[in-house]
Amino acid sequence: MLFLLIMSGQSSVNADNSATILKSLQERFENLIDMEISFKQEVNSGVFSSVERTSGKMYLAKGDKFLIQTEDQTISSDGKLLWVYSKENKQVTIDKVSNVRDLVRPSDYLFSFRESYSPSLLPDTTLGKIACRVVELVCNEKDEFIQKMTLFIGGDDRLTRRAVYVDINGNVVTIDFSDLKVDNGLPENMFEFKTPKGVEEIRIP
């Protein structure tokens, strides 16, 4: 299973506290036209002693549009519908975004954390050659899907380079972002999934 989580932000403000950093991320998201991201994801199971690794590309645009591509799976949304395509099973599931309870969309993620999570600053660190500010967000509600999140935000460009979160099932998910490209003019139709020939469509009522 691919855990969807996207976080991006940029600001010229020299933030001294977690609230200011998160505000700059939200403002950057609101002004975002589109974004292309490479990612590597690691999921440590909260039930089994297993680690699942995934890598691929993410694309997002205004209107809660996104596209995630890995070797085995494609997840796409035009803001209203969600397509989940499994290459192995030769099936694509089509559902309304509003029906998917555990889907973490970019806009939902940015706005809900400001309301439902308590932020705090952790000591600065370095990822590769990038100096990062570190913000931890702890959920105030027991039934939220994501219970705790740690963000590693580039000190110079205010772009999130790593997100580590713990979900309600005890899974620990680490996502590293790289090759972030902002406002390159992605075509709007790339977020509308076209079912390949020979692939079964399963439409959720």
Description:
- The chain is mainly β and 205 residues long.
- The protein has helices at residues 18-31, 106-116, and strands at 34-44, 51-61, 65-70, 73-77, 81-86, 91-96, 117-127, 130-139, 146-154, 160-167, 172-182, 200-203.
- The chain has a twelve-stranded mixed beta sheet with strand order 7-8-9-10-11-1-2-3-4-5-6-12.
- Helix 1 packs antiparallel against helix 2 (106-116).
- The model is unreliable at 5-15 (pLDDT under 50).
The count of helical stretches stands at: 2
SSE pattern: HEEEEEEHEEEEEE
The Rg value, from CA coordinates, equals 17 Å
Unreliably modeled segments:
5-15
Biggest sheet record: 12 strands, mixed
Helix residue percentage: 10-25%
Please report which band the strand proportion falls in: under 5%, 5-15%, 15-25%, 25-35%, 35-45% or over 45%: over 45%
Assembly type: single chain
Overall, the morphology is globular
Helix- and strand-based class? mainly beta
Round the mean pLDDT to the nearest integer and report it. Answer: 83
Distance between the termini: 22 Å
Strand order of the largest sheet: 7-8-9-10-11-1-2-3-4-5-6-12
Total beta-strand segments:
12
